[in-house]
Every structure is written in structure tokens, then in C-alpha cells.
Amino acid sequence: MVVRVMATGVFDLLHPGHLYFLTEARKHGDELIVVVARDQTARRLKREPYVPEHMRRTMVEALKPVDRAVLGSTTDIYETVVNERPSIIALGYNQVWNEQEVERECARRGVPVRVVRIGALPHDDLATRRIVEKILARGVKELSS
Amino acid sequence: MVVRVMATGVFDLLHPGHLYFLTEARKHGDELIVVVARDQTARRLKREPYVPEHMRRTMVEALKPVDRAVLGSTTDIYETVVNERPSIIALGYNQVWNEQEVERECARRGVPVRVVRIGALPHDDLATRRIVEKILARGVKELSS
Predict the structure, then answer these.
(1) CB pairs under 8 A between A and B
(2) Spatial distance between the Cα atoms of B37 and A89, rounded to a whole number of angstroms
(3) Which partner from A10, A82, B1, B134 sits 20 to 30 angstroms from A70, CA to CA?
(4) Which pTM value belongs to this model?
(5) Cα separation, A8 vs A48, whole angstroms
(6) Is B58 near chain A, with CB under 8 Å?
């Protein structure tokens, strides 16, 4: 039986931390399905993405460890779990969900999963913020010169 | 004989236009080697990259159409051609080199190549600029609020 791993995230400005997360997630099974958060979900839970959802999905699916990338549900994060029926769900080091709660809710919906937690890539946890800060610093400098 | 294709670029904030370029380049042969421009080369020819060269190289090599990504030479763009000996060089629609000049210079250095030109992905040619503008617009708004 193919062991399907599922990982999820916004994946706004792709950087090596994302790649590390997906590469490590992929190691827990035979195929990796990535759920890319919809723009409105990212807006609600985190912040407005810089890159629109269809571009984020395309770029995530282009990464070697990823077998398929799908856009998430706009209303219920468990909808995609029920559709895709993974047996493993990989959470990133900074994703707030609780392992036991996710396992409990998936089981309740008829999809028994094991949740694994992927650690951070050392020195790379603030990569998106650093890229954004660099763009802002240069932009503001150019605007004021 | 394996037909080696070479493509080159800065690949600063990865977007579907880059992916399209690399996917199309890959179709011209059996393997694709991508030369990622050094920070100092990008600075000289285009603009300072937002993402440092080692991160740009890692992310390009993580893309499915890419077999290997290498950092370019800091002094001579033909150095990598001589080292990697491609038989095809793919140029992007907005890369300024002239096909015949590249073919002539590669031949002169003992690496006969055919240069192919890859077209633009429709509607996606300004993707990096649009991402940067969105970051700046939001950042400046936040700074002034």
C-alpha cells in the first residue's frame, strides 16, 4: 500500500526552509500531497500572501519532493484530508496545530492519520521575513532618494 | 549520447515564468544544467538580488525540470560553458545575448553549441516586479499608518 503523506502551508516566497520541510515530510511515506492555503485562508490565519494562490500552487508542485499540490478548502481545513485520505500528516515546526487534536479530528472523520512534526532548518527560519525586509529596505531607500 | 542543455539566469524570486523557461529548455535535450548568476554578476548586469546566491542555487536545483544547478563564474560567463560542455544553450525571451554571437564564441572556445530561444509565458513576464511592487505597496502603507 502506498503511504501518502500530506503537508500544508502558504508557501508564499519559496525558500530553502520550505524545501527542507517538504523533503523531510516526503521521507515519511511514498508520495507527498501538499495542500496550499487559499489566499483568503492565509489572510485570515496569518497575513495576505504576496503571491496569488494559483502561482503558489504551481511553484510548490514544481518542487522535486512534491508529487501533487492542491489548493485547500476555503471553509474547512479537514475537507482536503477527507478527499485525499493521507495516512501521515506532516506539520512544520512553526505550525500551531496540536498533533493529538489533529489525529483525533481526522479519526472522527474516518481518516486515521499519524501526525509527525518536522523540525526547522537551522538558521533559515526567518527566510521569508528577511527577503521581505530586504525588498522594503531597498524600496524605501529608492523612494527617498 | 546525452544531449545536455544549459540555461542561465538570476532566478531571484521564483515564479511560473522561470518554471516555464526551464521546462521548455529541458525539452531540447536529455538533461538540464542551470547556471545561477552570482550576486556580483547580477548586481553588475541587472540589479542586486534579494535572495543570496546559495539560496537561489538551492531553489533552482529543487525544481523538477532541473538536473543540476551551479553558480556561475564571477569573471567570465563562458567559463561555465567550457566546464560543463553543453550542446544546447537555451536563452530566455528577455536575455540580451545574441544567438549567433554566443554560438560563435562557444565554438571559438572549443564547445560547439546550438542556441535556442525560449518564448515568454503569456501574462507572466513581469511576475518578479509585481511581487516586489506588492511587498513595497504593503510595506510603505504599514510604515505610514
Answers:
(1) 69
(2) 37
(3) B134
(4) 0.90
(5) 17
(6) yes
**Phi, psi values for residue A129, rounded to 5°:** -60, -40
Identity of the residue numbered A48: E
Q: Assign 3-state DSSP to chain A and report helix, strand, coil percentages, each to 5.
A: 45, 15, 40
What's the whole-number average pLDDT of chain B?
Answer: 91
SS3 of residue B25 by DSSP: helix
Q: d(Cα A48, Cα A63) in Å, to the nearest integer?
A: 23
Residue A70 is inside which H or E element, if any? strand A68-71
Q: To the nearest whole angstrom, how far is the Cα of B134 from the nearest Cα of chain A?
A: 6
pLDDT band at B9 (very low <50, low <70, confident <90, very high): very high
Closest-CA residue of A relative to B67 is A64
Q: Report whether A4 contacts A120 (CB < 8 A).
A: no
